[in-house]
Amino acid sequence: MNILVTGANGYIGRELVARLCTLSALPGYPDIQRITLSDLAFSQVPDDPRLHCIPGNFSEPATLAAITDPAPDLVFHLAAVASGQAELDFPLGLQINLEGALRLLERLREQGNNPTLVYTSSIAVYGAPLPPMVDDTTPLSPALSYGAHKQLVEILLADYTRRNFVQGRAIRLPGIVVRPPAPNGAWSIFSSTLIRSLAAGQPCTLPVNAQATLWLMSLHCCIDNILHAATLPAAKVSGGNAWTLPALRVSVGDIVGAFDARSAGAASPLVHYAPDPAIQAQFGNLPPLNSAAANAAGFRHDGDLNTLLDRAVLACATHSPTIAS
Amino acid sequence: MNILVTGANGYIGRELVARLCTLSALPGYPDIQRITLSDLAFSQVPDDPRLHCIPGNFSEPATLAAITDPAPDLVFHLAAVASGQAELDFPLGLQINLEGALRLLERLREQGNNPTLVYTSSIAVYGAPLPPMVDDTTPLSPALSYGAHKQLVEILLADYTRRNFVQGRAIRLPGIVVRPPAPNGAWSIFSSTLIRSLAAGQPCTLPVNAQATLWLMSLHCCIDNILHAATLPAAKVSGGNAWTLPALRVSVGDIVGAFDARSAGAASPLVHYAPDPAIQAQFGNLPPLNSAAANAAGFRHDGDLNTLLDRAVLACATHSPTIAS
Q1: Which of B2, B17, B1 is nearest to B325 (CA)?
Q2: Distance, CA of A17 to CA of A29 (rounded, Å)
């Protein structure tokens, strides 16, 4: 089988590719023969003869044709302009996050191969302020163009799936920790900055206060869920194709407390709070989350904060500076 | 002020243009100086020096540039490929109903004039089957590409409005009666066929049974609501920009009964029922509708079935064959 990964040099893409390289097949699919990686540029590509890196903007025709030759059987569509950057540069966000996704869907439709397509949507589809509890009936009301475009692609994916052009599965990611230290334009990056700083015993300044609540998932757990989306039997995805993933809901104070417990109280003095009301409202006020549909479909969060932090701290150690994707 | 009407040669567009020609200004706007009409071709254009017809496909760059020169202050975006045609010809529906709308929004954003834009969405955004009651909290779950694309444009319009690129107002139209006799690819056309046939004393065959329930609005009332959307004070549209219009909920039997009352029972024998389960499920099973938000914003339905039928029968008399738009 042929796999295509867009955004393959992003922090999620690289981890997904590394995991795929450890596998000879995915449940329910034939052997992995080829993994095509699409991104603007590449770094840290594993040594695996099945990998084919194609640099370029996937939303442009020549690159799109190249990354879909041969026609993929499974697509992980991760490529995106992050929240803050998409808000500041509207045309770029539109081009990549909506029009690029549409061009990719159209290309896959025209190829007629009906591939499985896993799309990393975002909790940004809910917007802000959120109701006192979020569940599978909560209306979507994106407050940023990034979230609006994520919702648009979910709807396109549902329609393309209904028409058997692709077999789409959208998963709405919570905050994934830790991101690499290089800023990528995501306004939610402070949760990664906090964990990275405390893991290294370094001071940090946060744009939210200690009471800020977050929905978090480790990068390791995120990859588990992305692969689970790809390997769900088709029968299980009928009637719905967008899941809000389960996430651990923790406060900034919970995280600092967990690091204090690991360091005899050395963490608290390292954290300086300088709340930005807009960031706090949009990214630091997450209510309880009931992700019943995703739980029933077999998606999982990290289980508990210490497991999440163990995984996140481990990931910090493996990062090195990379080309922003 | 300059007004742009897309789909100006459609059955709603022609009626809107005729009404605009009777007006020197709209409440809250300066005098109407120019009305640009966009459609593939034109027929029955009123004699008014303010009208400028620009034939062509608005989704193509040259035509789009022409119809937005000079930059409009108010846009009525009616152009669409109808439900059945968009389902049968996916690329055409995508091009006109989604990509065309996006190109228009992008053009208006780039012009920087922040025009008011009234978009005729559809109750097709709800999909089928519907819950036992539809209100402003009913989730959208389009069952056809036509409805999916309408929902997508609503979301785009909300984002463009939030960012002050346009002042968008989307109104979800119910079944509008009567449409012209020429088929335009709308699978809901049978309600117009029924009324037109009984008004003329002609037999007809329906793809639904007598118990089928419909949400209807006369074309006259539809134009009232389109103009109301354009003239709502901006303060009233904050917090929401898509309204499900109020509609009369009637059964096919109600309509036949009303014509029987007007014709000493001559209507019933004219109607033959040959239900198509798919059409009945999608277009003939409309539950009670509570359009509270639209009512509060001043949108109105026809009031009662006899008023609706009076208006619809009057409209039948004014139709003549036209070029399909």
Answers
A1: B17
A2: 17
What is the arithmetic mean of pLDDT over A222-250?
Answer: 86
Q: Of A5-19, A87-101, A303-317, B251-265, where does mean pLDDT reach its minimum?
A: A303-317
Main-chain phi, psi angles of A315, to 5 degrees: -65, -35
B146 catalytic residue (yes or no): yes
- What whole-number distance in Å separates Cα of residue A171 and Cα of residue A243? 5
**Partners of A54 in the β-ladder:** A38
Ranges of H-type helices in chain A: 11-21, 61-67, 83-88, 90-93, 101-111, 145-162, 190-199, 219-231, 234-237, 252-262, 277-283, 292-296, 305-318
* Residue numbers in chain B where pLDDT is lower than 50: 239, 320-325
Count of Cβ atoms closer than 10 Å to residue A146 Cβ: 26
Instruction: Tell how strand A271-273 and strand B213-218 pair up.
Output: unpaired
Q: Which of A136, A155, A238, A282 to mutate to test the interface with B (most CBs of B within 10 A)?
A: A155
Contact B211, B251 (CB under 8 A): yes
Cα distance between residue B103 and residue B65, in whole Å: 10
Among B119, B146, B160, B273, the active-site one is B146
* Orientation angle between helical segments A305-318 and A190-199, nearest 10 degrees: 80
Residues 135-194 of chain B with CB under 8 A from chain A are 137, 139, 142-143, 145, 148, 151-152, 155-156, 158-159, 162-163
How many angstroms separate the CA of residue A74 from the nearest CA in chain B? 23
- For residue A93, give the nearest of B101, B160, B107 by alpha carbon: B160
pTM for the predicted model, two decimal places? 0.94
Residue A277 has pLDDT above 90, yes or no: yes
List domains and CATH numbers for chain B.
2-174+218-244 (3.40.50.720), 177-215+248-287+302-318 (3.90.25.10)
Q: Which residues contact A189 (CB under 8 A, 6 or more apart)?
A: A179, A183
ipTM summary value:
0.92
* A116 touching B (Cβ < 8 Å): no
Between CA A144 and CA A127 the distance in angstroms is 7
Beta bridge partners of B121: B172
Structural tokens at position A55: 């640099």
SS3 B143: coil
- The position carrying tokens 């992980």 is A76
Which H or E run includes B87? helix B83-88
Across-strand partners of A176? Answer: A217
Beta bridge partners of A172: A121, A244
